[in-house]
Amino acid sequence: MTIDETTDDKELIDELQTLVNKVKDPDFKLISPALKMLKSVIRSSTTSMTSVPKPLKYLAPYYDVFKETYDQITDKEIKKECADIISVLAMCPSASTLKEHNDCLHYCLLGTGNVGEWGHEYVRQLEGQIVEEWLIVSNPTQTLLPLVEDIIIFDCKHHAEIQACDMLMEIDQLEILPKFLDETTYARICLYLASCVKYVDYVEANKILRLVTDQYLKFDECTKALILAVQLNDKEMANKIFSKCNDRLVLRQMAFIATRQQFPIDLDPNVEDREDLLNILNNSQMSMHFLMLARELDIMEPKTPEEVYKTWLEPLPMRPLVLGENLDSARQNLASSFVNGFVNAGFGSDKLMTIDGGNKWIYRNKDHGMMSATATLGLLHLWDVDGGLTPIDKYLYTSDEHIKGGALLALGIVNCRIRNDCDPALALLTDFVTNKHNTILTGAVFGLGLAYAGTNRADVISLLIGAVENASNVENLAVASLSCGLVAVGGYNPDVINSILSKLVDARETEALKSPYMRLVVLGLGLCYMGRKNLIETSCAALEVFQEPFKTISKTILIMCAYAGTGDVLIIQELLHTVSERLIVTENKTSKTQTAEKSTSKDKKKKLDWDPGVAQGIAVLAVAAVATGEETGTEMCHRILGDMGRYGDLWVRRAVPLAVALISVSRPHLPVIDVLTKYAHDADEDVSCNAIFCLGIVGAGTNNARLSAGLRQLAVFHMRNPSQLFMVRLAQGLTHLGKGTLTINPLHTDRQLMDTCSMAGILIPLLSLFDTHSLILGHNHYLLFALVAAMYPRWLLTLDEKLEPINVTVRVGQAVDTVGKAGTPKTIAGIHTHTTPMLLAAGERAELATDQYEQFSPTLDGICILKKKLETH
Predict the structure, then answer these.
(1) Nearest by Cα to 572 from 663, 442, 489
(2) Contact (CB, 8 A) for 468 and 507
(3) What single-letter DSSP state applies at residue 101?
(4) Domain boundary residue, one of 96, 113, 130
(5) By the 8 A CB rule, do 361 and 369 touch?
(6) Euclidean distance between CA atoms 637 and 632, whole angstroms
(7) pLDDT (tens digit per residue) in 503-536
(8) Contact (CB, 8 A) for 475 and 459
(9) How far apart are CA 574 and CA 250, in angstroms?
(10) Is 568 left (phi over 0), alpha (psi -120 to 50) or beta?
(11) Which residues contact 720 (CB under 8 A, 6 or more apart)?
(12) In what residue span(s) does the 26S proteasome non-ATPase regulatory subunit RPN1 C-terminal domain sit (predicted)?
């Protein structure tokens, strides 16, 4: 007896030795009782999580004895009992010469078949060995499937459902799971399977999502089923869920979820409350609800750009230079127009444009600046179709083409996300789509794109395809392509794809291909594939005819759009490979490789030339687009971007701020703000301009105090650099977007869904920033209005059964991942109590703080319908 063995241990060893001797006895009558006794001793042993049970530890050296005895036994029942003991002992490490690989599984199959009697660790061992054997065995469904089913039953009874799911996914037998689900287990299993989707391939993901959707429908969880149908982009399934649901309140809640995603639903003509549901699906109450929220928060008073800039907080010696009347430059007035529009977006009133003599402000801008200044009227009246058309209409009769073009764009902006039976945007803008004046044409075409973003309307698309085919210059082609992409976003519309591709092929041998506008044309093509993954293969093959770097640039843009928000690791690796390898362009005889640094010299700015570094820069942005929406991928992406910024070429460094912003849209975390602030002081003008604008994207609609203070310091630092100062003003306006009530974050419904329109609206300005001076800082600043497609209130509104607002107390905190957690874990951390209506920041989650109401939405965000519970006495 060793030192650590107690008297009890000695007794146990003696008892086990006696039983083993009986097993070895030639008299078979003694073997059966001995085996039963051994089973009883093993089962009754208790142990800690970190050590082997003592009976198993002491029996392990006799492994060979049991195997030899098994071969000698002739009675079938006794043989099975012996096989059970061998199967359990096979888990333990031993110096056996007869032990073979996967003995635990082999002897389990030869035993009595009661897998649950040996506990969790034994079952886990079996699961691992089943996965290994499944591909080796000739007919696994016959030999192993009955055992697999027994294990699933055990797992479901003992809160180990996650293990069962993992095993079934490994052996590709997930379809047998539904028959084992019941009221107590389906929620945990479905939540886990839905969270696995981001880590499997496209085909497997679809299979899992469809299986989970069917289970949610089986257990009458229609709203959760709809969210997954939207995730699958399956319109037929979504319509089926609507037609199956009989609860009118659940139907309305599902309509609000579909509207947030701009997902088209075909309602059954005989459905109850059809008018109410159509109103919700058309989003016609959006402006009313938003203004109600604003009144509740007491923020109806219009804000001026000066109140946003807070120039009085800047150091005294600097102030006259910034505020002096001599410096009433057109560029700063244009910045103020944008800021005014961003800050008062959706409120319907301001102190520059909607006051008496507001048109005087428009004339304080120059040329294309007048267009954008007029278009901000659309921002002010955002979502208010009835009230917004009248103040804009008067500008349609002016003789100035810039103001007229701005008014047409404003009409489109007002109608963004709203579906109206009268179709005012289509009626008013159609006549101008063939106009000969560039500015008017641009306003009408881009206005149509924004008004019908995400609708996939055939009539609008055919109108815009005409604009693509009749484009007289590259700028018109770019705007028409982007508008087509916005309307058909994620729709995989063959007409749009073919028309844009044919225009690209026509320009293959021309200088136009080198224009920055051509990248926007390709982005318009990419938007049609938004979230459609491998469907881009045909278009990628068509782009093979182009020379480098345009071929790589175009393919990267298509990949960025098709895999945006998927978190696909293999695609990210492919893109990182593009980032790491500099393309060699053999067009110039004098030099085989043209570096990005050479192209930035002032004498080359006007001359269009290939710059191979752009392909690397766009690949950086694409990495961020793909990683968005998947927490682990986002975290890794931040680390990779840090290295890229330190060691990358100039174009890579220009793209890094854009990528950092894209994975932190409307989420102003301190590390992100610090990184972008460093880039904002960079010696390269394009790097600093991009970083400053991206500070606005990161802080969009958050009113973040630290970010606001940082932007004021940047305004002082760049006061003599008009380009950077313009970007600072834009960033300040974005930070106070809708006075802090709006967000442009494409992820919603507790980060389960990605709004493709929002993603498209963010990608357009970010891709434009690859040529900051020729686009955003040139005369194409109207491209910033693409952000309208991404704007949405970051609210939590609670409505009663009659869709009237009600005030309810809710607990709000940082969302906690509860997937696979035991018991009923807390879903939020750092809890604060609020009363609805209220604002939710990105990454926050809310839950009801009262038992009086029941909710119909799986997550409390956006517009939620509550029903008062019946009082039980």
Answers:
(1) 663
(2) no
(3) T
(4) 113
(5) no
(6) 9
(7) 999 888 788 888 889 999 999 999 999 988 888 9
(8) no
(9) 43
(10) beta
(11) none
(12) 819-869
Tokens encoding 420? 């109206």
Tokens of 574: 């492919």
Rounded to 5°, the CA angle 560-815-702 comes to: 70
Using alpha carbons only, give the angle 510, 516, 519 rounded to the nearest 5 degrees: 90
Query: What is the longest distance spanned by two Cα atoms in the chain?
Result: 113
CA dist 430 and 463 (Å) reads 8
Cis peptide before 858 (omega within 30 of 0): no
Burial of 436 (0-12, 13-18, 19+ CB in 10 A): exposed
DSSP label of 815: E
The residue type of 721 is N
- What are the distances in angstroms from CA 302 to CA 100, 374, 868? 79, 18, 37
Give the number of domains in the chain: 2
From residue 609, alpha-carbon distances to 380, 476, 552, 769, 797 in Å are: 40, 21, 16, 18, 52
Strands 753-754 and 809-815, by their bridges, are: unpaired
Q: Half-sphere exposure (CA, 13 Å, Cβ side) for 120? A: 13
- The token pair that represents 133 in the structure block: 């054997």
Residue 147 in any domain: the answer is: no
Element (H, E) at 796: strand 795-799
> Domain ends where: 113, 134, 158?
113
Please tell me the least confidently modeled range out of 177-186, 317-326, 704-713.
317-326
Domain span at 34: 1-113
pLDDT (average), residues 705-728: 92
Question: Quick check: is 839 in a domain?
Answer: yes
Under DSSP, is residue 865 helix (H, G, I), strand (E, B) or coil? strand
Task: Give helix 550-562 / helix 756-768 axis angle, nearest 10°.
Answer: 150
For residue 248, tell me if it sits in a domain: no
CA-CA distance, 525 to 135, in Å (whole number)? Answer: 43
**Alpha helices by DSSP H, 699-804:** 705-717, 722-735, 756-768
β partners of residue 863:
797
Q: What is the dihedral of CA 186, 189, 193, 195, to 10 degrees?
A: 110
- Given pLDDT bands bounded at 50, 70 and 90, which one contains residue 481? very high
User: Side chain identity at 677, as an amino acid letter?
Assistant: T
CB atoms within 10 A of CB 577: 10
Secondary structure letter of residue 652 according to DSSP: H
User: How many whole angstroms separate alpha carbon 342 and alpha carbon 25?
Assistant: 90
Q: Whats the size of the chain, residue-wise?
A: 873
The two three-digit tokens of residue 461, written as one number: 């698309």
Residue 863 is inside which H or E element, if any? strand 862-868
Q: Is residue 851 part of a domain?
A: yes
What distances in angstroms separate CA 695 from CA 224, 314, 692, one per listed residue?
Answer: 35, 19, 5
For residue 473, which phi and psi values (nearest 5 degrees)?
-145, 175
Share of the chain above pLDDT 70, in %: 92
Long-range contacts of 763-768 (CB under 8 A, 24+ apart): 763/523, 763/527, 763/560, 763/561, 763/564, 763/625, 764/482, 764/520, 764/523, 765/693, 766/621, 766/658, 766/661, 766/662, 766/697, 767/519, 767/520, 767/523, 767/557, 767/618, 767/621, 768/520
Rounded to two decimals, the pTM is 0.89
Structure confidence at residue 626 (pLDDT): 94
The torsion angles phi and psi of 657, rounded to 5 degrees, stand at -60, -35
Chain-centre distance of CA 651, in angstroms?
A: 26
With beta carbons less than 8 A apart as the criterion, state whether 418 and 262 touch.
Answer: no
